[in-house]
Amino acid sequence: MAFMQLDERGLVSLDDPQVIENLLPELAAQKVLTGLNDGKSPIFEDRKRDITPRMLMNHTYGGGHSCFNPLLFEYLGGASNAVNEATDPHQTALDSPLLWQPGTHTNYGQGFDWLAVLIERLTKTSLDKHLSENIFAPLGLRDIGFEDTFGGNITSRESSKGKFWPRNMRQPDGTIVPIDPPVLVNPERPLAYPKGKYHTFPLGTGLAATASEVARLHTIMLPENAGVDPVTGHRLLAASSVKEISSPQLSEALRNDTRFTDSSIDMMFKVADLAAPHVDPAGTYGLGCAIQGVDRVLKDGRKGRSKGSVYWYGAANTEFWIDGEKGIVVFVNGNYLPWNDEAWLDFVAGVEGLLYEGLA
Predict the structure, then answer these.
(1) Sign of the C-alpha dihedral, residues 83, 86, 91, 94?
(2) Could you tell me if 67 and 264 are in contact, meaning their C-beta atoms sit under 8 angstroms apart?
(3) Alpha carbon distance 164, 181 (integer Å)
(4) Which helix H or strand E contains 111, and what residues bound it?
């Protein structure tokens, strides 16, 4: 949403590679990692294709994420490396080479963290301030913002007491135990942009919100609202931007790349087979979201979300979908790891089946 607002104002274009060259020179300078000799020495080739802002949002810019790409995980130092997307998103992005030539492969990566840097450099303000002034405040949203770990205060404010669940981990024996939030490797706020040059606010992680405010934001994407908040009447996005976000972005060849998600850390992230018949075998990516390819049919044969539904499920098993055909927004929040846990998937499927039975 934040990027599309800037696009609407004429400050940037989705398909302009020059903005990457000019404002993200660190990304533009990255080579493509093709492998590791003897599992140690990196093998590189030069980047030969342009990167555009659109590619950062549809996961085709050529990069990856260390939690979901074993090659990048090993390149960055494996399990012994304290710097990763959770503890220092900006430094991890700076340290990460590309893994494919841009536009030739689809892989969930650090594109949103690069997008966060791009938004800060375009607006010359910190991301938390920009989001607050341009998205949250106009809608009267007060229970959404960056976690304290990343320089915000959403979870420590007096008014936030009792509103946010602690992080948890489901153990192999099924027990649920609390886990501490990540500790930033580089917590020095005086270095933070725009006073300094370090970009501490990511978009791949770090935002916290109550369920009601997450769902409220998503209602803006419903066709009948088309960018307008139904509570305040404030237009957050142009209807054309909503359509662009929720439109399939990938060719058939690139779409096929999106159906399997690998894992570098099995205890935290389970391998995902999105091609399974009861999930989304014909699905694709929009801009910052996934798009359901055909009507979902659950394992037990019941109907699920409609074709064209916009959806995502985050690392802490926080799942939403926006079913424009039915005119509904659904948000189901687990707030625990591992991602893609089978018990969680079964729970969401149960909720989904009951919901659509009620709508029939």
Answers:
(1) positive
(2) yes
(3) 13
(4) helix 111-123
pLDDT tens by residue, 204-253: 998 999 999 999 999 999 999 999 999 999 999 999 999 999 999 999 98
Which residue, among 334, 320, 319, has the nearest Cα to 168 in the 3D structure? 334
Cα angle 305, 243, 125; round to 5: 110
Q: How far apart are CA 271 and CA 258, in angstroms?
A: 13
Greatest alpha-carbon pair distance for the chain in Å reads 60
CA dist., res. 343 & res. 170, Å (int) = 10
- The residue extents of the domains of the chain are 2-116, 246-359
The reported pTM is 0.94
Cβ–Cβ under 8 Å, residues 76 and 87: no
User: Nearest Cα to 53, choosing from 7, 92, 84, 107?
Assistant: 7
What are all long-range contacts of 278-286, with beta carbons under 8 Å and residues at least 24 apart?
A: 278/349, 283/255, 283/258, 283/259, 284/248, 284/249, 284/250, 284/255, 284/258, 285/58, 285/59, 285/106, 285/248, 285/249, 285/250, 285/255, 285/258, 286/58, 286/245, 286/246, 286/247, 286/248, 286/249, 286/310
Contact in structure between 315 and 112 (CB atoms under 8 Å): no
Peptide bond into 138 cis (omega under 30): no
Q: Give tens-digit pLDDT for 75-123.
A: 999 888 888 898 889 999 999 999 999 999 999 999 999 999 999 999 9
